[in-house]
Amino acid sequence: MRKLALALLMICHAAPAAAADVTVFASASLEEVVEMLAESFEDRTGEKVGITLAGRSALTRQSRRGPSTDIIISADIQWLDRLEDGKAIMAPSRRVIAGNRLVLVARSDDADAAATIEAALSEGGRGMIAIADPSNAPGGQRAREALRELGLWDTLKARTAQAGDTREVIRFVQRRVARYGIAYHTDALAFEDIKEVAAFAEELHDPIRYELALTFQGQALNRELSSRFVEHVLSPAGFEILAAAGFIPCPDGC
Fold this sequence. Notes:
Layout: H1 2-12, E1 22-26, H2 31-45, E2 49-53, H3 56-63, E3 71-74, H4 77-85, E4 95-99, E5 102-107, H5 117-120, E6 129-132, H6 138-149, H7 153-156, E7 160-163, H8 166-174, E8 180-184, H9 185-189, E9 194-199, E10 209-214, H10 223-233, H11 236-244, E11 248-249
Parallel strand pairs: 1-2, 1-3, 6-7, 6-8
Antiparallel strand pairs: 3-10, 4-10, 4-11, 5-8, 5-9
GO biological process, one term: molybdate ion transport
Binding site for molybdate: 29, 184
GO molecular function, one term: molybdate ion binding
């Protein structure tokens, strides 16, 4: 409930269309990199980019409002499929822009944290493990897939503290709600007080991919500018920004 309330609050206070030339709605795990992409675009063009970060359910409602939504960037490919089926986004505009890695994290000051995933998750049943909610969040779905492949899910699911998204997983670890968390590599890089214990092998879960799409509900007058922002994201400069933030750039798809 707290996550949903925060997402709705962010939407209510998002910059109105008059204050931004193009608006981007993105997953919370993209916070820093979308801000860097927007700043780079503004520096190059002088056009203002409005950014709203919200969970999937809030983004779904916002995307149906029309004028305030020009571009969506998300790791939830199934959700984008449903938006495409509902004629909310333009199918030809969909592009995979980046990938990510699933990692186990702990507090940086946790000197006794285990050195491997197996050791950390089999500490005699001690403590909670934070994951994003597998019923809603892509990061939680990938975490559950990896734990199942390792044969650990049935044992550990009762010890999971389920968060709204991978950024809330980080907050759970920071506040010691859980000793360990399963989040994205880029989440771990974004916080000095969080360290990456180990990475999950990619074959343990479905790929983590971020897609970008233009919406039909975006302002017609912004369509050309929105396309220019997409071109900027897909440019060498855009992919360089993604790489600097720890993402895996996908100039030719991933």
